[in-house]
């Protein structure tokens, strides 16, 4: 594939990937705002506990197969069929385990409703397993447009279902109905969009080949999910479901940019870098560009979000969620580097070093133990501050590994990203000072947003930042063409 073709496909992938995530989580976020006004933090906390087990199960179902298929340039129908049947079988087993474990889990967290809601929501695992191959094929083709359309339909429809259920007074079941229906509609939509149909074929050869690569990723992802979910479990157990509700709501705001950009970067970079993996210089240059573009967006968005956190949360979901403001502001410090983490880890996948990926995750999780311990002895905000320290250490470790495989590591990245990072911090502090005015929350929020946009555009233009200039040129060309 030519350099220009890869560049265009990557830009299109980012564009449609962004739209996909805006549809998938943006609309869900808006629906969440409506539900947050109708439901209590405790009800959101119950769903947060269930999410711990659903997320871990989703990681196990994937088994690293999706990544193995994406980076395999000559994937066959036997490969797709084999993975599809494995995904379905594993999902059925996990659903049975969650149903059997529902009562002990409810007793552990002292939330009787969990015994009923968890088995009901476990059906999402089957819907997820049924859509993994469809989504993988679309990602391999860099076809994020189809995924965006499906996400839009599923998010809007499930949002209407959830809000209607909440209006009817169904409480936590309204949140469950929204998530279940969204996953089901998304599965149906992906099958319609992709037209791939499974056959009753299973290849032991395909399984061994893909699992040989994917098993190490599976182990690494399970370890990562266990530690992330342990973080939530500690909050749910050592504090209250209400505290977990505050944390989850702050995290939902946090994910507007960090997780959405992280997912886009992960999907687009894995596909685009895999296509130039045999040309070290092209891959290094492409990797560096991705890092710089990612930093430009994420630093501005995440630190800007921290600056407007208070008027934003109070305006959108009310003062009963004020404890989430400070939590969100702390989270922004590690949210800023989350997409960069995904980029560095993808180099290991592109270079077929899933063995290093596993070793790296095991090593890093030993470093995460002190973060969990802080949750047992101190207040929630201190636990999140400890997580900030951990994630910056993790960034340096990931960058060191990526340097060995790409020639572009931590210190080069820090040098490239430092001007953007410092600029974003200074602009955000300036915007944050506006919260000390006596303006009502809505006018204050609008003023902060306009000031932030004006400052970023002015500063980037004055310093002649290459990435800003290139993005501006691309956008202008698109506008002129239309």
Describe the structure.
By secondary structure, the protein is an all-alpha fold. The chain has helices at residues 3-38, 41-62, 65-71, 77-109, 114-121, 124-140, 144-167, 172-194, 204-238, 241-254, 258-274, 280-307, 309-317, 323-335, 338-350, 354-377, 380-406, 410-432, 441-463, 466-481. The longest helix has 36 residues, at 3-38. The two termini are 27 Å apart.
Give me some keywords for this one.
85% helix; 482 residues; mainly alpha
Architecture blueprint of SSEs:
Layout: H1 3-38, H2 41-62, H3 65-71, H4 77-109, H5 114-121, H6 124-140, H7 144-167, H8 172-194, H9 204-238, H10 241-254, H11 258-274, H12 280-307, H13 309-317, H14 323-335, H15 338-350, H16 354-377, H17 380-406, H18 410-432, H19 441-463, H20 466-481
Helix pairs in contact: 1-7, 1-11, 2-4, 2-5, 2-6, 2-9, 2-10, 3-6, 3-9, 4-5, 4-6, 4-9, 6-8, 7-8, 9-10, 9-16, 10-14, 11-12, 11-15, 12-14, 12-18, 13-19, 14-17, 15-17, 16-17, 18-19
Short structural summary:
This protein has 482 residues and is mainly α. It is 85% helix and 0% strand.
DSSP helix fraction: over 70%
Q: How many E strands? A: 0
How many alpha or pi helices? 20
End-to-end span in angstroms? Answer: 27 Å
SSE string, helices as H and strands as E: HHHHHHHHHHHHHHHHHHHH
What is the 3D shape?
A: globular
Characterize the biggest β-sheet: none
Mean pLDDT: 80
- What is the SS-derived class? mainly alpha
Measured on Cα atoms, how large is the radius of gyration? 22 Å
């Amino acid at each position: 594939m030519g350099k220009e073709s890869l560049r265009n496909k990557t830009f299109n992938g980012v564009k449609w990937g962004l739209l996909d995530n805006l549809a998938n989580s943006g609309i869900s976020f808006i629906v969440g705002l409506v539900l947050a006004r109708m439901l209590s933090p405790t009800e959101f906390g119950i769903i947060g506990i269930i999410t711990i087990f659903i997320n871990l199960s989703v990681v196990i179902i994937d088994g690293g197969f999706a990544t193995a298929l994406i980076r395999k340039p000559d994937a066959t129908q036997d490969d797709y069929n084999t993975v599809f049947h494995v995904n379905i079988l594993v999902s059925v087993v996990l659903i049975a385990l969650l149903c059997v474990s529902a009562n002990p889990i409810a007793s552990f967290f002292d939330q009787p409703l969990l015994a009923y809601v968890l088995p009901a929501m476990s059906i999402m695992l089957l819907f997820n397993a049924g859509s993994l191959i469809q989504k993988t094929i679309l990602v391999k083709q860099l076809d994020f447009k189809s995924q965006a359309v499906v996400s839009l339909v599923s998010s809007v429809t499930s949002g209407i279902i959830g809000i209607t259920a909440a209006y009817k007074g169904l409480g936590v079941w309204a949140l469950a109905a929204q998530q279940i229906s969204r996953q089901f509609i998304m599965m149906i939509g992906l099958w319609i969009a992709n037209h791939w149909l499974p056959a009753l074929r299973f290849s032991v050869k395909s399984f061994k080949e893909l699992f040989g690569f994917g098993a190490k990723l599976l182990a690494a992802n399970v370890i990562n999910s266990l530690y992330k979910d342990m973080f939530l479990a500690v909050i749910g157990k050592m504090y209250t479901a209400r505290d977990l509700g505050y944390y989850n709501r702050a995290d939902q705001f946090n994910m507007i940019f960090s997780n959405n950009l992280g997912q886009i970067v992960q999907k687009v970079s894995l596909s685009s870098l895999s296509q130039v993996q045999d040309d070290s210089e092209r891959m290094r240059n492409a990797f560096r560009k991705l890092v710089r573009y990612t930093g430009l967006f994420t630093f501005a968005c995440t630190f800007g979000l921290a600056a407007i956190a208070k008027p934003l949360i109070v305006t959108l979901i009310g003062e009963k969620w004020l404890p989430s403001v400070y939590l969100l502001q702390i989270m922004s410090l590690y949210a800023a580097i989350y997409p960069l983490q995904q980029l560095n880890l993808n180099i290991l996948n592109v270079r077929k070093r899933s063995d290093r990926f596993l070793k790296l995750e095991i090593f890093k999780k030993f470093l995460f133990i002190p973060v969990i311990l802080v949750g047992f002895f101190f207040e929630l905000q201190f636990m999140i501050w400890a997580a900030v320290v951990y994630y910056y250490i993790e960034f340096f470790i990931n960058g060191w590994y990526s340097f060995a495989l790409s020639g572009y590591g931590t210190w080069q990245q820090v040098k490239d990203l430092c001007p953007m990072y410092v600029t974003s911090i200074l602009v955000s502090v300036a915007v944050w000072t506006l919260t000390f005015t006596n303006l009502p929350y809505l006018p204050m929020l609008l003023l902060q947003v306009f000031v932030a946009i004006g400052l970023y555009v002015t500063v980037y233009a004055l310093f002649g930042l290459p990435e800003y200039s290139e993005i501006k040129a691309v956008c202008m060309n698109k506008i002129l063409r239309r």
